[in-house]
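[scheduler] slot 2 assigned
[scheduler] job type: sequence-to-structure, two independent chains
[scheduler] chain ordering preserved from manifest
[runner] begin chain α
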Amino acid sequence: MNKIKSEKYGNAQIFTLSNDNGLMVKITNYGGIIQSILVPDKNGKVSDITIGFDSLSGYEQIHPYFGATIGRYGNRIGNGKYTLEGEEYKLATNNGPNHLHGGIKGFDKRVWNAKVEGEELKLSLLSKDMEEGYPGNLEVEVKFKLDNDNKLHIEYTATTDKATVINLTNHSYFNLGGESTILDHKLRIDADKMTAIDATLIPTGELADVDGTPFDFRSMKVIGKDIEQDNEQLVNAGGYDHNFVLNAPDINHVSAEIYHEGSGRFVKVYTEEPGIQFYSGNFLNGTLEGKNGEMINKHKGMCLETQHFPDSPNKANFPSTVLRPEDVYQTKTIYEFGVR
């Protein structure tokens, strides 16, 4: 049976999930943050494949959501407002003119209640009515489990007592080889379309074909191959920071995969969500000191955030993110780790 070990981590706790194959995932109940994922390479050398900090104090400062559980709403909401059932709700504009990742004090800055049940770590919290401008008392639970197939299961559940919007995700930054950038990593995303964005990174509403563009990752492609192209979408984001519309969202289907030839490591992503945000770490700017005293520079890590689409509350043609009292929000994502 895979064990979960608990230790003090500053004023919070950190939990180590380990399996029989030498994999370890460390998760703190501060922000529901995945602090590290330790994976052997093709030669059996175990290294951390995520970007972040060694100590809790790193996560308590302002940082770009390293490893965090994001809520109430992952990604952006245009102009920090939306209308639901005839009422306009105003949110913090903490990313230029837009609302990002739940606001000033999102779920990434909350201390979650933690409980170990067998092989599962359960984190839960109550987000009170009108917290960060969102209606409804929202009860949230996120369950983490590492199995012997080297799969990290993340299951999100939530209920509300008033209609609200919700879009939960995990914001881990991967670097499979420990090198200065992820531009040599190969990536595949099973998506024929992406949501085009404006200059403030808000979707225009257009589902744009990836065919013949730098956004075609339908077969394995080196991330750095097209990132410098003179393409309006790349210019808007300073690289990749786009939502891909998945062809077949299913927990048994690989929707995305990263591969690093040097280490032999791969990460596969399975999800029930309709989209994945691929972010190539464009705004990492070398001002933060990460693990082992290394500065976190541009493109040091990349994210594959499973999600509903950005700005869905303002886009009638996007899948709905509305949760009502009679419904249960439930979604699963799996990250699988291995070598080839």
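[runner] end chain α
[runner] begin chain β
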Amino acid sequence: MNHNQILNSIIKPNNSKIVLIVMDGIGDIRNKNYNYKTPLEYAKTPNLDMLASQSVVGRMIPVSYGITPGSGPGHIGLFGFDPMDITIGRGVLEAVGLGLELKKGDVAARCNFATIDEKGNITDRRAGRIPTEKTIELCNILKSIKEIDGVEIIIKPGKGHRFVIIFRSNDKKIDSLINDTDPQAEGKPPLKANGKNDASKFLASVVNKFIHKGFELLKDKNPANAFLTRGFSSKPNLPSMWDRYKLESAAIAAYPMYRGIASLLGMKLLEAPTSIEGLFETYVKNKQKYDFFFIHVKGTDQAGEDGNFESKVDCIEKVDKALPILLENKPDVIAITGDHSSPVAMRAHSFHPVPVLIHSEFSGRDDVIYFHENACNNGGLGFFESKFLMSLLLANARRLKKFGA
């Protein structure tokens, strides 16, 4: 028997409550400009440190050693799936998170509005992080392109500079094996879409025609005069949190991508206020209705990708300040971690392990009294792969029977 088979055979439902707080991109590396400290070390976090002193901590490997995860693989691991076995594209996650219904055969792509110069090179991959209101306005312009070569084009704005496209065809076969047109760097032109099989090659030609038409419509707009496509994908078939763990689950996440992950796993999507306090208060209001809560904090990742050390510190301190709201209504199990690291110095996701904390009546304590990367190196959880986190949470919630005689 493998790990998942054993786990499925010993799950036992009870009335315990589990909260998983995901501080997106929380992991970092020591920064020479800030006394060689990480943002977690630099931040004033009395509540997180107090909780760490009453918990077990460690470092978690999102995918595998040296592998930098995208947000999809990073989160899939947190919910107990092996990111190397299951792939969910960003397009699907964004589309489902925005409430769009994906039909069999649909291909979705997540897009960023961007800025290009007169030579066609990208000067800002996120168009200055334009507000959602501007994205809605620009999407309405792109919606004039309704169909290309028999493929229907469905566009919906997301949060900030992001939007999603669904490609749908009733009589022509399309597939999602298409590269991103985002080169992941400024100073370069957008890439051409290319497919890896016949159905993908056909759709790639449609994508390139759509991009050409779209750029023409946006050429006089400032700063968002272009867009980049990412994560071409189709909807996978995944078991729900109830089917897998017998957990009635809810998600408190504002961004469509993370709501999409939660929706694919059968979680109830709850209101997600913009403030950290609001996220925790939403948990309190719904505490009796669900067994498992996924609470997502985006600001840490955004600050890391922007290379903004102080903004990352500020977000961490806001989480710490709001933490008593949750602690006063303490669940049976609390876990705090991230889906990946986003070091400020790298301005991107990275391969570095993330700090993790687990607290329950039965978690025990180690000798660690701070919650940051270097303290967590010495914790009782050691270093482990994220796909085992759910097993640890279920065990701490006493939701697992003994294995064997």
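[runner] end chain β
[qc] chain β: The first helix runs from residue 3 to 10.
[scheduler] slot 2 released
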